[in-house]
């Protein structure tokens, strides 16, 4: 790590301003916030132009979340508040040009907040940080490609290179990225999925034969019951609230399960409905269960017991399409509800009442996100959820199924087209047939393993297709030291972020076109494709002038690196230049490699795209080892600790590691992020008051990490549980603390010590 460069976000000198949490999401405040952020970044004309084309049939896919768009119709403003912020953030008029990089050293920049870094605007041309220097300077594209190629071919073996991928990468760019990695000779393809839904993929593949969801938007309209567990749609997937509202109006019951009572699950005021906007809005969840962190597995076990004891089973489905029911039934019937109540913190009578209601449902959907996937026992918990659904035959019928809600706009598509450190032999064989390259067969590094490899010197070159790796990963100190230990780090980015400041001996920043921008090649304007959370592949075509004449597309950057490698290695026969000029050729390769993309270039012209095959949903068939849907038996587990249990969360002015602002409007927190949400009784017991400063600590095998000066915020959260924002709290998550079998960082269950800080400041309520 360069001298005086800190990987940690700076401390905050003033306490946040606190008010009561809001009782409804969206509405007029969302409209005002959207307009303010859009006008501030894009101006009047830019806001009108860009927001009119987001999620339009002939426009660009929102660069925010992966929630699907309606198949047959789109409203004039088919976006949410945070989607509009994502568009404005990319379309900003601010520029982090060469003057910016000459003004600020990496040491000085590291002392700035993530919000400040992001607000500096779009990077305008390639930049390099040379050994011994503290300032990035401009470099040409060809020189950049030569440096990357020279460093790659100088490695002792291909596995010393790491190719990381962000979830915003298009299908075309992601396919070329994995092709580049495998052509070079490695499966080191960690991606953001390793940090979020990897547990879902592992669990679902074993249970039902596919690592993704089995529902469509239409299923929400015909469901009897929708359970939203470990998810905050109001902030992280706001357009989902429309689907939940519509489902509720059609008679569905909605149950929210979360340690926090999130505003979006209370009431929703649709911004395009004047009656709702100025009235009370629509009620969303008719029941909320405020469970203790990581007790979801136990709760779903109780739900399963109610279904079995009531006899409300789909016996035909169980007999003909599943395996392992008898063993699971015996395990469930031995369940002690008093013990479940103790584990979850939910009164036994309430568990019985809710379980009875659930057992009456004829069609049930379960939705989840990071609140489920980032625990040590996440795979077991997700398989418990699937067990629960299998009992009622709630896979492969209308209004029912699993719905893991993905985050970034194309994180599902990236995995589909080959971003996978553990590729199947079918994929490897198909890739060789379609491209002629001989892919490695040994598994590569995931994100956690990548950090350890860079840390030990087993990996020396780190290339990132988007993202902000140092802020996204757990154990910030070790992650930053690992990156700094590399010979070369390369970040394909649009705006400055903290990872740029923690480079290897040489650091490269390669600025790319954004989703909203026109992508013009030598043969004409190009478009890309993405896959949403429900398996729909559709096109995205930028409509705005690029932020700089120097910018090129992600496929062009990958092809540039690939072309430079071709001159240094035995020729592979891959026509990188042609692929960067004409994305139809990339889609042809995807079609030849991956089942389900038949007639790709023809079908993608359909304005709403096309669905990929989903055997559990389409035909109730399961591509598991035994060709059946499987019940799995797991002991109920949760971390027992005499410390507080911490879960990391996002603020409302945040999307993943991108900080749009310093407010969390729904939770009543303004102008501050370094906060710890804490139960009022726990505060009293520990002699704490609102806005007191505390130091947080987590244990390591070699000692203790202390993160100082967090402001205490009283909140409705179960006793013994606390919540903090990431990336600020990532430093407290040990790198070794991972989910069983998926290796996902346990960001939602971190034992934490709390001690009042020696220095206090005046509160600002």
What is the CATH-assigned architecture of the largest domain? 3-Layer(aba) Sandwich
Judged by helices, strands and strand pairing, the structural class is alpha/beta
**Overall CATH class of the largest domain:** Alpha Beta
Strands across the major sheet, in which order?
6-5-18-17-16-7
Shape: globular
**SS strand fraction:** 15-25%
Tally the beta strands.
33
CATH topology of the largest domain, by name, is Rossmann fold
Biggest β-sheet description? 6 strands, mixed
Helix content: 25-40%
The number of helical runs is 30
**Poorly predicted runs:** none
Distance between the termini: 39 Å
Q: What is the typical, i.e. mean, pLDDT? A: 94
User: What is Rg?
Assistant: 25 Å
How many domains, in number, for the residues?
3
Short summary:
The chain has 765 residues and is α/β, with parallel strands linked by helices. Helix content is 35%, strand content 17%. The protein has three domains: 17-22 and 644-756, Barwin-like endoglucanases (Beta Barrel), CATH 2.40.40; 114-195 and 412-611, Rossmann fold (3-Layer(aba) Sandwich); 198-405, 3-Layer(aba) Sandwich (Dimethylsulfoxide Reductase, domain 2), CATH 3.40.228.10.
Write the layout of secondary structure elements.
Layout: E1 17-18, E2 25-26, H1 27-53, H2 81-90, E3 95-96, H3 98-103, H4 106-110, H5 114-119, E4 122-123, E5 127-129, E6 137-138, H6 141-153, E7 161-165, H7 171-184, H8 198-208, H9 217-222, E8 225-229, H10 233-236, H11 240-249, E9 253-257, E10 267-269, H12 274-278, E11 282-283, E12 287-289, H13 296-310, H14 315-321, E13 322-323, H15 325-333, H16 337-344, H17 348-359, E14 364-368, H18 370-373, H19 378-391, E15 401-404, H20 411-416, H21 425-435, H22 447-456, E16 461-465, H23 469-472, H24 476-484, E17 488-493, E18 506-511, E19 519-521, E20 524-526, E21 528-531, E22 536-540, H25 554-566, H26 576-581, H27 583-593, H28 600-603, E23 610-611, H29 615-619, E24 629-630, E25 644-649, E26 654-655, E27 658-659, E28 669-670, E29 675-678, H30 680-685, E30 693-700, E31 703-714, E32 721-725, E33 750-756
Parallel strand pairs: 2-10, 3-4, 7-16, 8-9, 8-14, 9-12, 13-24, 14-15, 16-17, 17-18, 25-32, 29-31
Antiparallel strand pairs: 1-28, 5-6, 5-18, 10-11, 19-20, 21-22, 22-23, 25-33, 26-27, 29-32, 30-31, 30-33
Helix pairs in contact: 1-2, 6-25, 7-25, 8-19, 13-16, 13-17, 13-19, 21-27, 22-24
């Amino acid at each position: 790590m360069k001298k005086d460069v800190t990987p940690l976000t700076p401390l905050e000198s003033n306490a946040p301003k606190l008010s009561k949490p809001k009782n409804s999401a969206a509405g007029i405040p969302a409209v005002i916030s959207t307009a303010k952020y859009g006008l501030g970044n894009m101006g009047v004309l830019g806001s009108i132009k860009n927001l009119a084309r987001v999620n339009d049939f002939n426009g660009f896919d929102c660069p925010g979340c992966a929630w699907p768009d309606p198949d047959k119709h789109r409203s004039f403003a088919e976006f949410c508040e945070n989607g509009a912020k994502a568009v404005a953030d990319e379309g900003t008029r601010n520029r982090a040009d060469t003057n910016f990089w000459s003004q600020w050293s990496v040491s000085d920049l590291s002392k700035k907040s993530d919000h400040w870094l992001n607000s500096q605007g779009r990077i305008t041309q390639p930049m390099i940080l040379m050994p011994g220097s503290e300032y990035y300077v401009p470099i040409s594209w060809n020189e950049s490609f030569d440096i990357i190629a020279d460093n790659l071919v100088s490695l002792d073996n291909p596995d010393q290179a790491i190719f990381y991928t962000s979830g915003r990468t298009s299908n075309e760019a992601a396919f070329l990225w994995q092709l580049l990695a495998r052509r070079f000779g490695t499966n080191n393809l960690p991606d953001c999925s390793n940090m979020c839904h990897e547990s879902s993929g592992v669990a679902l593949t074993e249970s039902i034969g596919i690592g993704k969801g089995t529902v469509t938007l239409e299923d929400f309209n015909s469901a009897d019951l929708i359970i939203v567990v470990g998810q905050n749609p109001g902030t992280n997937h706001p357009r989902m609230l429309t689907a939940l509202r519509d489902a509720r109006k059609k008679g569905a019951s909605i149950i929210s399960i979360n340690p926090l009572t999130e505003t979006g699950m209370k009431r929703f005021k649709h911004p395009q409905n004047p009656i709702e906007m100025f009235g009370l809005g629509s009620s969303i969840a008719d029941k909320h269960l405020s469970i203790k962190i990581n007790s979801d597995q136990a709760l779903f076990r109780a739900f399963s017991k109610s279904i079995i004891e009531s006899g409300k089973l789909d016996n035909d489905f169980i007999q003909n399409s599943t395996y392992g029911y008898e063993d699971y039934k015996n395990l469930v019937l031995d369940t002690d509800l008093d013990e479940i109540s103790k584990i979850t913190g939910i009164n036994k009578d309430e568990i019985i009442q809710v379980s009875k209601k659930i057992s009456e449902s004829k069609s049930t959907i379960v939705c989840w996100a990071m609140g489920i996937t980032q625990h040590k026992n996440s795979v077991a918990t997700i398989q418990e959820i699937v067990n629960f659904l299998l009992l009622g035959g709630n896979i492969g019928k209308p209004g029912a199924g699993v719905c893991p809600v993905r985050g970034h706009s194309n994180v599902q598509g990236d995995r589909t087209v080959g971003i996978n450190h553990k590729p199947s032999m079918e994929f490897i064989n198909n890739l060789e047939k379609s491209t002629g390259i001989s892919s490695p067969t040994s598994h590569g590094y995931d994100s956690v393993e990548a950090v350890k490899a860079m840390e030990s010197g087993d990996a020396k070159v780190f290339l990132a297709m988007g993202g902000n790796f140092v802020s996204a990963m757990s154990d910030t100190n070790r992650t930053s030291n690992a990156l700094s230990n590399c010979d070369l780090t390369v970040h394909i980015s649009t705006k400055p972020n903290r990872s740029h400041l923690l480079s290897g001996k040489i650091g490269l920043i390669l600025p790319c076109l954004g989703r909203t921008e026109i992508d013009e090649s030598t043969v004409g304007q190009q478009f890309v494709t993405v896959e949403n959370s429900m398996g729909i592949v559709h096109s995205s075509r930028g409509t705005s002038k690029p932020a700089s004449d120097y910018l090129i597309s992600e496929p062009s950057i990958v092809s540039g690196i690939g072309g430079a490698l071709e001159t240094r290695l035995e020729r592979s026969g891959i026509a990188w230049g042609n692929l960067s000029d004409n994305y139809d050729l990339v889609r042809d390769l995807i079609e030849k490699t991956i089942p389900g993309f038949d007639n790709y270039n023809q079908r993608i012209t359909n304005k709403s795209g096309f669905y990929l095959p989903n055997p559990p949903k389409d035909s109730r068939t399961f591509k598991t080892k035994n060709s059946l849907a499987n019940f799995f038996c797991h002991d109920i587990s949760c971390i027992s600790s005499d410390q507080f249990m911490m879960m990391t969360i996002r603020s409302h002015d945040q999307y993943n590691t991108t900080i749009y602002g310093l407010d969390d409007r729904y939770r009543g927190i303004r102008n501050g992020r370094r906060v710890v949400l804490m139960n009022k009784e726990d505060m009293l017991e520990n002699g704490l008051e609102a806005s007191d400063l505390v130091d947080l600590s987590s244990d390591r095998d070699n000692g203790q990490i202390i993160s100082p000066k967090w402001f205490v915020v009283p909140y409705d959260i179960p006793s013994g549980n606390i919540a903090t924002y990431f990336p600020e709290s990532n430093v407290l998550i040990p790198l070794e603390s991972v989910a069983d079998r998926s290796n996902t960082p346990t960001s939602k269950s971190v034992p934490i010590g709390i001690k009042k800080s020696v220095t206090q400041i005046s509160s600002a309520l």
